[in-house]
Amino acid sequence: MFNRFPILRIPLVVFTEVVAQLDPAEIVSMSLCSKRSLNILKSNQLKNSRNWELEMLDQDDNKPNCPRVVIFLIDKCRYLEVLSARSISDLKSQNPQFVNIGSHRVPAAFHKGLLQTYWEDRVQGLKAITDYTSSLFSLPVSNVTIYKNSLWMFEWVSKRQTVPLKKVFWWTAFRKNEDFWDDEVFSSAMRQCSPTNKLYILSEPSVNYRLTERLPKVNEIEISKAGWITLDNLMSIDSIEICIDESQLSTVDITKFLKNWLAGGMPRMEYIIITSKNFNELEVFDEELQAYVVPIEEKRKYQKNPFGFEFEFVGGYSMQRKDGIKATINFRNGSFHMAKWND
Length: 343
What we know:
- Helices cover 24% and strands 33% of the residues.
- It is an alpha/beta fold.
- It has a domain at 1-52 and 78-139.
- The N and C termini lie far apart (69 Å).
């Protein structure tokens, strides 16, 4: 027989050290044991949480119909799921345990190490477990992962906090029976997208989609499956770092893009990569551009921060604007790279 250990009765100094060894999921589980455990954990300063980010996820192929809250450990570059909100119809147990999530008392069970709660309304459940985790760790929502049915996250997050989001992921579930985003929903997401530091558009509209809205202002943007991006869309992007993947942009588009940059366009841009099957390096620099371009052999590495884009330029071309600002251009394996240097 095992004796229970009275962990809530140990001295605060010792308790603090014990909590410091727990991961976020274990702390959340411990907080749900009783009101006393929740209050002690909330009043006990969690120093580790200063290096954590809270993320809301609607669902994905690995856990369909399973909205959940994740903590990102910045210093370890690791994601830990801490709570999920499933539909009550998914509950298998006849005698489930119950937990208090804010003002809600709901059934819960562990599944593969993740504490799952069960709700009549999964959207309400995701909101509740997000508020609970945010309050426990004194963390704002930093990141959201949305699908075509979860645009409500934008408005909900903007109303619950003044702190802007750090990352927004737009996603398409890649199951064979999953439709692409409806074009109007895609445009609506553009209009509603909350202010954020990084925007990752991994979802895809129809092949005939044309964006009429301006892309949100961010510091880093990555667009996958970017066949819908036009030259006008590209030149309207207001971001420091830009990644456009699987585009249909042409050599002529790159030529016009470079002329726009020489004229002072996209002033915040410091690095861009564009992939396309339609590039021909030999035809990019027309007679007008050749006056500003010099072939180079030197190596130079671009990397703004440890978690951002990284690219080593080996040779290529140097381009200088009339204001003295220089950039390096490189073509490699169907991709166009350009970095602006501030020195």
